Amino acid sequence: MSRPSQTSLPEHLRPHGDQDFEEFRKLCSTSESEEFQKIHDKKGIQVFVKAITGTSVKMIKTVTTLSFPKEIVTDVLMDEEFRPEWDTLMLEAKSVYKVSDTCTIDYYSSKTPGPLKNRDIVTLRTWRETDDELLCVNKSVEIPTLTPTKKFIRMISYTTGHRLETIDTESCHYTYVSHFDPKGDIPKILVNGALTTVAPKNIKSLIKSCELYPEWKANHKPEYKPWRTPSQMADLPNLPEECLEVVVEEATEDNSGEEEKLDEGAIEEMQHLFEESQQAQELQEEEEEAARAALAAMKSMQAKRVTTL
Predict the structure, then answer these.
(1) Cβ neighbours of residue 22 under 8 Å, at least 6 residues apart?
(2) Which of 30, 155, 197, 216 is 20 to 30 Å from 190 by CA-CA measure?
C-alpha cells in the first residue's frame, strides 16, 4: 500500500510541523521566571517543573551539557536496537508504522516496580536533524490496531521530546521536556515528587550510554541508521487504511487498560520505595562528592611535593 499524503492523514496522525517544533523550542528555552520552577541544580544538571492547567501532573524540563558530539547522542536516543542495553525496565520497543521519512508510530511497554501494573504507550514521533540541532518530539496517539489491553496500563505523553544543540565537535547542549502521565492509581503527588529523583538518573544513564555506544554500534549493524537514511525503513509498513478511517478516543482513566486498584497499603509501600530511592541518591551524591574532594586533595599534595623537590 502506498503511503498516504500528509494532507490526507487524520489531523492526530500528521507529523509534527514547523509550528509544533517552534513551540517545542520555546519550551526548551523558556527561563525559570516564565512559569518553570527550578527543583534541582547539581553537577551541571538542572531540573525544572511547570504546572499545567487542567492536569495535576507537572511538565518537567532537564537541561545539561554533554561531553559528546551531537551525532553520538542523537544515535543513542534514536537507536531502538541499542535501547535494551540501557533500559532495564523495557519489555518491548519498536516502530510499528512509517508515516513519513522522519515520522513513525511507535510502541513501548515496560515493567513497573512495586505493586503497580506494567505500562505501555503508543506515540507519534517526528524528528528533524541539521548540522547544529536535533529536534525529536512525540505525543500519544490511539489507533485501532494498537488499542489498550488489560495486560497494561496505557500511559499518555502529551508532549515529550529532546533538543540537542551543537557546542563544538566534542560537546552539545541537551534539553529534555516531557508532560507525561503514567495513568492508573499512582498518586499524582508521587508522580511529581519522583521527578527530582528520576531526571538526574536519566542524565547519568544517557552519559553512560554515550560512552558505550560507539563500540557497541561497531559490532551491531554499524551502517544501519534509519533515522538518517530513510531508505533503511523500507520494510516498515505504512499506516493501514483502518487507521486512517477510524479515530479512536484518546486514552483516559476509563480506557487506559485494566485498573490497578491499589489499596492504602500499596500506596504506603510506593511512598516508602520513593523515599528510599531519594535517600539512596542523596547518599550516592555525597559519596561521589567526598571522592572528588579526596582526589583533589591528593593531587594538591602531590603538586606540593613536586615543588619542594
Answers:
(1) none
(2) 30
CA distance 23 to 16: 11
pLDDT in tens, 224-282: 999 999 999 999 999 988 887 755 555 444 445 456 665 556 555 555 555 545 444 44
Displacement of CA 246 from its chain's centroid (Å): 28
- Beta-strand runs (E) in 59-151: 59-66, 90-100, 103-110, 119-129, 133-140
| pLDDT, mean over the chain | 84
Q: CA nearest 101: which of 232, 200, 272? A: 232
As a residue count, the chain comes to 309
For β-strands 103-110 and 45-50, DSSP reports them as unpaired
Q: What is the pLDDT of residues 59-115, one digit of tens each?
A: 999 999 999 999 999 999 999 999 999 998 999 999 999 999 999 999 999 998 777
**What is d(CA 241, CA 257) in angstroms, rounded to the nearest whole number?**
25
- Cα angle 148-154-156, degrees, rounded to a multiple of 5: 130
Among 120, 57, 63, 58, smallest CA distance to 92 is for: 120
Cα separation, 145 vs 133, in Å, equals 34
Do 89 and 114 contact (CB within 8 A), yes or no? no
Query: Are the CB atoms for 141 and 121 separated by under 8 Å?
Result: no
Burial degree of 150 (CB within 10 A; 0-12, 13-18, 19+): exposed
Count Cα neighbours of 182 within 13 Å in the Cβ-side half-sphere. Answer: 20
Cell numbers describing residue 119? 505500562
Verdict on whether the full-model pTM lies above 0.85: no
pLDDT of residue 280: 46
